[in-house]
Sequence to fold (321 residues):
Amino acid sequence: MSYIEVRDLRKTFTVRKKREKGSLFRERETVEALKGISFSVEQGELLGYIGPNGAGKSTTVKILSGILTPDSGTVSVNGRVPWENRKEHVRHIGVVFGQRSQLWWDVPLLDSYSLLKDIYRLPEADYTSRLKELTEALELGGLLRTPLRLLSLGQRMRAELCGSLLHRPELLFLDEPTIGLDAVSKLALRDFLLWENREHGTTILLTTHDMEDIAALCPRVMVLGHGQKLFDGDLQDLLRRFDTTRTVTVRYEPDISALSLPESAAVSRSGSDWIISYAPDQLPTAQLISLLQDAGSIREMTLQPENIDHLIAAMYREMDL
Fold:
């Protein structure tokens, strides 16, 4: 049996529409957030959970963490039903929501961590060693006596991660943890998550719209849309289906006057640069490069794959999301 087992999970919400002019009551609408999704996760996996807004990602995380109860279906996390064994379950999980905080706004980080130690009933020796390990890995040592409200966004996210991992959870849920972070903070956060997964075997389920996070962290990815699972497998297999256009820019020394390539490649010029757009499934990259080398002595060449966000947007359009 897998560490996480989800079978035919369903959840609906009743929402009230804006009251129309002249109407006494607001109409109600039933929204199906999850429509019978099933999947399993092995212990120690890094799983990317992606999809457009409203796909049902956060609803899944809230059910798996015990915050919500589904309408139907079964969930088992290491033998526990999250919403039925909630007290025991939360001892083994950590949750970080990118737009919500579990730390106290006006008190120093150390005071928040001390309170979390009491909440999780951590022995003093275990708490001290774990806090030291995390503050070194997350570079929080000089910030422990600083109130959360005085930290930058990147520092706050590192502090939130530290708080979520103090009790050594087996499972970590990350819901858009890099939202709003700068490039340096994102790289540092990714490095830490890989370290935590490697050193402690922590199972991580990551939901995000930042596809660079997924590409850097998650060998496996699930795509959710309209409350249904649309894809579950290797990220590269998913991208390969939508990586339909690439661009090569090449400059010759000395310059050449003509370039002969198959009709499937679109060729244009910008000054002394030749710009070639091609479809890898029609003209393999290795074959194209060989043809370009045969045409003359190459001075510079740049191969530009399609931006990963563009690939995911194309995927969403094809899947009608």
The first strand starts at residue 4 and ends at 16. The domain at 245-305 is CATH 3.30.70 (Alpha-Beta Plaits). The mean pLDDT is 87.
